[in-house]
Amino acid sequence: MNIKFILVFLLAAAGFSACKKNDFPHQDDFERSYKAWLAFKASSGNNYRYEVPGYTWAGSSWLTTVTVREGKVVQRDFVYTAFNDVIMPENGWTAAEADKLLEPLNMTAETFLEREGYPFLEALQWTETAEDLGTKSRDYSSASALYTLDDIYDKARTEWLKNRSDASISFEANNNGLISSAGFIPNGCMDDCFTGIHIRSIEALE
What we know:
It is a single chain. By secondary structure, the chain is of the alpha+beta class. The chain is built from 6 helices and 9 strands; from the N terminus they run H-H-E-E-E-E-H-H-H-E-H-E-E-E-E. It has helices at about 5-15, 25-45, 95-100, 110-115, 120-125, 150-160; strands spanning about 50-55, 60-70, 70-85, 85, 125-130, 165-170, 180-185, 195-200, 200-205. Strands 1, 2, 3, 4, 5 and 9 form a 6-stranded antiparallel beta sheet that branches. A 3-stranded antiparallel beta sheet has the order 6-7-8, covered by helices on one side. A hairpin with a 3-residue loop joins strand 1 and strand 2. About 30% of the residues lie in helices and about 30% in strands. It folds into 2 domains: about 5-45 and about 145-200, no CATH class; about 50-130, no CATH class. The longest helix is centred in the first third of the chain and has 18 residues, at about 25-45.
C-alpha cells in the first residue's frame, strides 16, 4: 500500500474522530463509511468509477458513469435508460429510434438540431473525456456533476446531511461500506424532491 495514502488515511481518520459526536444526522454511519472510503482510496490508488442513476415521475430514467484516475475525473458517460416510457434498446439508441422519440413531441431530427444546435441523439447518450469534460452537459442534461468521491463525501458532510428541521435526511452505505445514498427531502414534498446523490455502484480500476 502506498505510504502517502496510508498517511492520508490516518490523518483524515483522526480528524473525523476528533469531531464532536452527533454534529449532523447519521454522523456515526457517515464516519464508518468515510473510513471505508479512505481504505478503498488507498487500495485502488484513487482510481475508480462509480454510477449515479436518476429518474423522473414522467417516465424517464438515466445513468451517469464517472471515471476517476489519480483523484481526478477523466471521463463522464451519460445515457437515458428510458425516455418518456420508452426503454433504451439493448445495443443503445440509434438515430432511427431517436426520430421515433421525437414524433410525440411534434418535432423532427432536423427541427431539433436547428432549434438546439446539436443532434437529439446526443441528448440521449454521450461521453466526455479529459479533453472536453463539462462541454456536453448542456441545459437539457440530467447528468451527475463532475465529482470525485472525495467531493461527494465532503458535500454529504457539509451540505446534504446537515441538520434541517424542515426535511427528512437519509444516508446509506450499501456499496461494500462506501456511500450509496446521501441527501434530504423537504417535508411535504411528493415528487422529484430529493437533493443529494444516489450511487448504484463503485469499482476500482485496474
